[in-house]
Structures are given as C-alpha cells and as structure tokens.
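Question (not urgent): is this output format expected?
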Amino acid sequence: MSSNSEQQASSNPTAPLAPYGLIGEKLSHSWSAEIHEKLGSFPYQLHELSASELKGFLKDQPWRGLNVTIPYKKDACALADATSKDAQAIGAANTLVKDANGFIAADNTDVYGFEYLVKSLKVNLSHKKAIVLGAFGGAGQAICYALKQDGAYVVGVSRNPHVSSSYVDCAITYDQIKSHYDTDLLVNATPVGMFPHADVSPLSKEELSAFTSLQCVIDLIYNPLRSQLLLDAESLGILNANGLKMLVAQAARASSLFLGQEVSDAQIENISRELHASKENIVLIGMPGVGKTSTGEALAKLLNRPWIDTDFLIKQKAHCEAATYLQIHGEAAFRHLEHEIIQEISSMSGVVISCGGGVVVTPSNYQALRQNGKLVYLTRPLEELALTGRPLSQSVGIQELAAVRIPLYKAWADLTFSCLGNPDADAKGLLDTL
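Got this back:
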C-alpha cells in the first residue's frame, strides 16, 4: 500500500486505526509506510497532527508502535512513561511503543540508524573531527550523540551563536566553518537542499573544496537521492552518502521494537537497495537516432513505470514538433526550452526518461538529471543512425556531432549499453544489465 493510501486511511475518522504508524506535522512525502511493509510492521498509517492533538492521540488512541518526526520528537520523549538511554540522553524520541496497559516507552533509533550508515561506509571516526550542520535540531542532536559515542571530536554548526550541547565539543556559526577545514567528516542534518528546493546547498562547492582532509560527506536528505551537496562532493571525488540507509536502518530498529524480533543487516541492505532502485529514474542519453525514445518506452512498459520523452514535452509546450521548433527558433532557444523541461521533471522519481541527443551540451542539465537518476548512455555504430527528422544531424553531420557529444555522453554516464536496433530486445537487454 502506498504512503498516499496510508495518508487517506489515517484521515478517515471511521477507519480502524492501524497498529503502527508515523506522526508528524507534514508527511505527504514520507516513505515510512513502504519501508515498514517490507519489514512486516504493517498495517502502517501516516498521521498528520497539530500540536494540540498530539497528547490526546498518544494517550487515547489504540496504537502499538509509532515513529515520530518533525516537530514532535522532543514532545514525544516528554510524554512517554519511560525512555531509553539514547532517548533520555538526547531529549528526543523518534520511536514509541505502547503495551496492553497503555504504558508508553520511548527510544531514539536515529542513533542506531546513523551508526549503521557510518559502519557501512567503513569510516573510522575515533579521534577524528566531524562537522554537523544543523547540530542542535532533532536529527542533529542524535547525530552528535552518535558521533561522540564513536569517539569523534564534534563541531556543531548553527545559525544561533548561543546554543550548545554536551555532545558538541565546539559550537560555531556558519561563518566560522573556515576555521575547521581540517575536518574528516561533514554531515548535513538540515533540510537545506530537500525537495522541492533541491538546487540549493548549505555550503557552496568552493567551500566544500576548501576542506583539506575530508574523508566523507553525509547528507541526511534522501529526497532527492543526491542533493546538491552530494553532487558537489561527487564531482570533487569525495566519498558521499545520502540518508536513505539511515532511514531504513532506524526503521528496522523501530520495527524490531514494535514486533519483538530482530532485523538482520542483510534485510536492511536489501530494503535499502530495493527502495533506492524503485525511486531512481533511468535516464537515457545518446546520439540522435540511437533508440532512446523507442527503447525508453519499451523499458518503461517492462518496469511498469511512467515514461517521459523530453522531445514530446517540448512539442506539448511549443505546440510544434521539437525538430520544427529547433529549425524555426535556432539551437540556443531550443536548448533553453529543453533545460526548462529538464528542471521541471528532475524532481520526479521512479520514471524512465528519454532525453534528446543534445541534452549534454547544456552542463546544468547534468545535475538536474543526476539528482534522482541513473544516466545510461545508449550506443550504436554511427553509420546505423537515422538522419530523418533530425536537423542537426543533417546540417552539422553525424561525425561532427559525435566528436563533440560522445566525450560528454561518456563523462555523464553511469552505465553504457550497446543497442541492437530492436527496441523490445534492447529494453530487455538493458533491464538485465540494470
């Protein structure tokens, strides 16, 4: 059952309450129901509550296990009858369990989730310096606590120069970060860069490049899959990770508390991979006439995913064929319109996207497509590429276009696939490769 149907169920006052769920203020983009279905802690509902509804819901409703998100983690901890060591130390809870007598126990599984993520990255933090952006928020406090448990020296960054925490060795503001360019780990625990504002970052690429010994960058954001911060880290060759595996790991620990049974590391890894694959777009790039449209449409059918063709969207927007628009208005105007469309679809997830052959000549298209996409470069011998309906292939020439574009396709691609010219066969072959 999707998170949308879970949301609808929770908003119906006559529907029976599911035993498990998530409470928070805004939950429309939550993936929790999908994860907990895989874990077995299901049925699972999303409950958007106002502050005035929180206490009554926790005390009076017949739930058995709840996850808690912004902005109620501290309130949940205070309202519980008992708290774990981690929840008590942080002063915030993201997991609640209610027994048959109505006794509520609070825990903070974000600590386990972050520790699991760091362990999976094989990053040793003992006696190393770690900077946490947004260190004094609900998630940030859990991260700082976990880092201290691992023996790190923690630098907490916030906009407020007067906040502090027992789990932060040094509290600074953003304009003081330059004094800590020797840090080993950078963690973003702020929402800066989250959908729908995925083109912003808490640090510029220039600032990121100034760190002299950075081993790893972690952004707790997982929507988009690759935030601007992670894209910048990737371009600088720095090990990086989003918060998806932490999300799954903390959910696994919560589920084990709900159900009284452990979740294995193998299950966490499998669910993380499945979820990432289901959310990641498959983006087809390559020369005009290689088969991006026909193969993309066939692949989308095999995967039962929506299919998007950027040239078709250009046709819808311009009220004429993409090739006609290019011939009438010129390449500069065409590329501008193409970029607008790429930006519009970049926030989508779980779709197959067939791009026009020249998408790679606009550098900013890369980050828009990469934030949620795996880029697949389709190839065929140049002499097999059709010229009909392709103005630049005819006017400039296939060989000349290829000389400019092929290096760009290779630089952008996460995967290269050789097409045979049969869309169904190519789609099946590409599916096997993926």
